[in-house]
Specification:
By secondary structure, this protein is of the alpha/beta class. 39% of the residues lie in helices and 16% in strands. The protein has a single domain, classed as Rossmann fold (3-Layer(aba) Sandwich), CATH 3.40.50.1820. An eight-stranded mixed β-sheet has the order 1-2-4-3-5-6-7-8, with helices on both faces. The N and C termini lie far apart (51 Å).
Length: 308
């Protein structure tokens, strides 16, 4: 039955193997002109980020395939009290896309190396989706570098078993087939990007042409297909961290959009029960990126938690 499902998906997908775009970094950030683009080098690779405000450092970490733009509704508010760093994770956004194995360990060490590169000894990590997984994993590997954790619809260790929406389930089902998942990812177009974005919100009308074009451009930058494919291929390796979650002692806030079709509410509740020093906030009428969809609820919750 599973074979017929992925065959039907592939046959019905409008593939578009258009030419990839070159990586051209912007000199201004169009969704927030008050931000000054910054760059740093990590192991010879250029990492793109923005910084604003003064105070204790906060690191905003986006998810799989996304970019720092998902934090556009947090940066100005949080930077009134804190020094906010929004970064494009290696392989994403306007950061370099080296052809390496994108294992969980690579992402975890990247975050530590980024903190070293910009001179941060310790920070509060705020992560969404895969970025949330990077955050809690960093708290396991490098606990002395983490002050607090804010995990928003974050990736669990058993991500391949827990992810529920159809497109990701299909990719998981075919990930071990030779070249097939790579071709499916390479064939993404504006329609498929729109569909993925609409899965991330409870109100599809929020995905405007501007938002679609923004994410589509990032997804077509040369090297993106390899990053997405390699990350998926190695995602199962995060499972070995499951038994270490209970060792996290940092104050932790889970924020979860109740209508998330990717990581359902029970995923967050299980993580909350595992990390003892944690709180859990459910956000109604919100899905996978509640910080972007419902900032009027998420931002006050973040500020309250940080000030406790």
């Amino acid at each position: 039955m599973l074979r017929f499902r992925w065959m039907a998906f592939i046959l019905s997908t409008p593939f578009s193997w258009g030419r990839d775009l070159p990586l051209v970094r912007p000199t201004r950030i169009d969704w927030n002109p008050s931000l000054s683009p910054q760059m740093t080098q990590i192991n010879g690779h250029t990492i793109f980020y923005a910084v604003k405000g003064e105070g204790k450092p906060l690191l905003l970490i986006h998810g799989y395939g996304a970019g720092m733009w998902v934090w556009e509704k947090q940066i100005d508010i949080l930077s009134q009290t804190y020094r906010v760093y929004a970064l494009d994770v290696i392989g994403h956004g306007f950061s370099d896309r080296p052809k390496i194995a994108y294992t969980p360990e690579i992402y975890i060490h990247f975050l530590r190396d980024f903190m070293n590169a910009i001179g941060i000894k310790k920070a509060t990590l705020i992560g969404n989706s895969m970025g949330g997984g990077m955050a809690w994993a960093t708290a396991i590997f490098f606990p002395e570098r983490v002050d607090r954790l804010i995990l928003i619809n974050c990736m669990p260790p058993d991500v391949l078993a827990q992810v529920k929406n159809e497109s990701f389930r299909t990719l998981v089902a075919i990930r071990d087939f030779p070249i097939l998942p790579y071709l499916v990812i390479a064939g993404r177009n504006k329609n498929s990007i729109r569909w993925v974005l609409q899965e991330c919100v409870s109100d599809s009308k929020l995905i405007t042409r501007e938002i679609l074009n923004r994410q589509y451009h990032l997804s077509k930058i040369r090297g993106s297909t390899w990053v997405l494919y390699s990350t998926l291929k190695h995602a199962e390796e995060a499972l070995k961290l499951r038994d270490h979650l209970s060792s996290i002692h940092h104050p932790t806030l889970f924020i979860w959009g109740e209508e998330d079709p990717i990581f359902p509410l029970r995923v967050g509740e299980t993580l909350h029960q595992t990390i003892r020093n944690s709180k859990f906030l459910r956000i109604k009428r919100s899905a996978h990126i509640p910080m972007w969809e419902t900032p009027h609820e998420v931002n006050p919750a973040i500020l309250t938690f940080l000030q406790e």
